[in-house]
Amino acid sequence: MQKEVLSPSSAIDLVSMEESDSGNMETADHVAAASKTGKCVKAGEKAPPEAIKSWKENGFSSLIIAAPDLDAWGIVKELVPLLSYSAPFVIYHQYLQPLASCMHNLQIEKTAIGLQLSEPWLREYQVLPSRTHPHMQMSSSGGYLLSGTRITHSD
Predict the structure, then answer these.
(1) Which residues contact 124 (CB under 8 A, 6 or more apart)?
(2) End-to-end CA separation in angstroms for the chain
(3) What topology does CATH give the domain 59-155?
(4) Contact by Cβ (8 Å): 101, 72
(5) 3-state percent breakdown (helix, strand, coil) of the chain, nearest 5
(6) How many CA atoms lie within 13 A of 139 on its CB side?
(7) Does the pTM of the predicted model rise above 0.90?
C-alpha cells in the first residue's frame, strides 16, 4: 500500500475541510488551487497575489532575507509586518551599514526585540603533523547578519 505525502498547506486545507460547519467535503480541485498559494516561486520573482493575501491574513512563522543587491530597509519594512508575532527573522547583507540602518529603524518603530548584528566569520585551519596554522588565502569578510524577533507595538 502506497502512502500519499501531503504538503503542509494541503494538509492544513484537508483539516479545515473536515472541521467545516457544512460537513460537505470540498473537491480535490479546491485543495489543489489552495495549495498553490503556498507554492514557492523562483528566486527574484514576485509571489502571486493569493499567497501575499494569505500571508497578510495569517502571517508566516519565520523570515530569512539574503538580497545584498537590494535596499535592505525597503525589503524589511514590507516583509516584517507580514510575520506572525514572536516570529524570528534573519537578514544577510555583505555590508554593515544597511543592516545598522535596518536595526535603527526597527528599534524606532518598536517592531522587533532581541536585535543583534553579527559577523559570521569562520577561520579555517590547516592541520599537518607538527604544524597547524590558518589557511593563508582567506576572504576578509563573509558579510553580516541582523537577527531579531517580531513583536507587536502598543500605541
Answers:
(1) 134, 135, 138
(2) 57
(3) Rossmann fold (3.40.50)
(4) yes
(5) 35, 20, 40
(6) 8
(7) no
